[in-house]
Amino acid sequence: MAELDRDIPVPENAESLRARLQALAERVGVLAPGAPLTEELLAFAEGAIDMARGAEERA
Fold first, then answer.
1. What is the pTM of this model?
2. How far is 10 from 27, CA to CA, in rounded Å?
C-alpha cells in the first residue's frame, strides 16, 4: 500500500473539483506527482463522492 504524503497539499479553494482530486490522488499515492488524472479515475472518484453523499443522507 502506498504511503500517505502529507507534504502534497489538497487545496480547499482549487479552481476545480478535478484539481482537488488530482492533488488527493497524488497525496495518497494513486498517481505520481504531475501524472495526469485519467477520465476513468475521475469517474471513479466522482462515483465515490456520490456514494458517500448517499450514505450521509441515509444516516
1. 0.79
2. 8
Do residues 11 and 19 lie in contact, with contact meaning Cβ atoms separated by under 8 Å?
A: yes
Question: 3 φ, ψ to 5°?
Answer: -80, 145
Element housing 37 (H / E): none
Give the pLDDT confidence of 11-59 residue by residue, as tens digits: 888 889 999 999 999 999 999 999 999 999 999 999 999 999 988 788 7
Radius of gyration of the chain (CA): 12
SS3 38: coil
Residues 6+ apart with CB under 8 A from 18: 37, 42
Look-up: residue for cell 473539483? Answer: 17
